[in-house]
Amino acid sequence: MTEPKRITKAVFPVAGLGTRFLPATKSVPKEIMTLVDRPLIQYAIEEAREAGIEEFIFVTSRGKSALEDYFDESPILEASLKAKGKLDALEALKETNMPSGQIAYIRQHQARGLGHAVWCARRLISPDESFAVILPDDVISAETSCLKQMVDAHQEIGGSMVAAMEVPSKETSSYGILDVNEDMGSLVSVKGMVEKPAAEKAPSNLAVIGRYILTPEVLKNLEKTEEGSGGEIQLTDAIAREIVEGRGVYGYRFQGERFDCGSKAGFLQATVAFALERADLRDELRLFLHERMAMEQAAE
Ligand code: G1P
After folding, report:
1. For 9-262, CATH number?
2. 106-133 pLDDT, tens per residue?
3. d(CA 14, CA 37)
4. 257 CB neighbour count, 10 Å cutoff
5. Best of 19, 108, 174, 190 to mutate for ligand 1, by most ligand atoms within 8 A of CB?
6. How far apart are CA 131 and CA 13, in angstroms?
7. Is the CB–ligand 1 distance for residue 16 below 6 Å?
8. Among candidates 217, 215, 233, 117, which has minimal Cα distance to 161?
9. Is the CB of 242 under 6 A from ligand 1?
10. Which of the residues 6, 12, 19, 180 has the least number of beta carbons within 10 Å of its own beta carbon?
């Protein structure tokens, strides 16, 4: 087998309405909501950069202009920070700048599902090029970024790959679920995939987490994919077609901790976990949590 080409493009589907976070998301895109002091999207970008991604494709929708502004240069703010000698803030700000030509925005005009959102980016991906997809709601804290772990594994094995994690059986209806062919440890080969099955119908409890490396064939499959679970065009169904056509699909059990920032509880957990890792916040937060827990226990 010839070595797969390096993955340099990533698609970020960010068109969702974020209804679970209303009213906050009435005017602020969900992806701009902050974990400690960075918006969700910044974590996704940094993960992608660590994995060698050079082109960032955002699939957006109406009301997401704050996201485009976020990645713009901000000369007035930069000049003001420089003049005041606030160099740390200036440095933090510069991390958010994206070089021109490395970032593209595509509109998804109708909310027709994740598969449809990825399909909207098809013209920016060459017919011979595999690409990554990152769902910014899934925030993964890891020593080596989750996507980098997957890119390295993909380099060895090729095909399409999804991040995978065991979930409790009662939660299978919230995820794409893998039907495992061969379990090789961190890597599993897959013989089927089902979007959001009820626990009694789930082929396993190994769930798809929002990181994908996809062959360009998946984009072609999306052309033919009909509405599936929830009446939406599902990425899971287009990847499953790869298996039917005899091409490899793998699940990758990544090293790291995943937070479901699409839910309020997950967002709060991520906020606490990330803050506890920060030298400038850890002590104060620990003390607060400690005292608070003691108060809660005393009141029980
Ligand atoms: C999407 C995918 C699902 C995957 C999940 C991971 O679902 O459709 O297969 O398991 O992301 O977070 P969503 O959470 O957007 O409903």
Report:
1. 3.90.550.10
2. 999 988 999 999 999 999 999 999 999 9
3. 20
4. 13
5. 174
6. 13
7. no
8. 215
9. no
10. 19
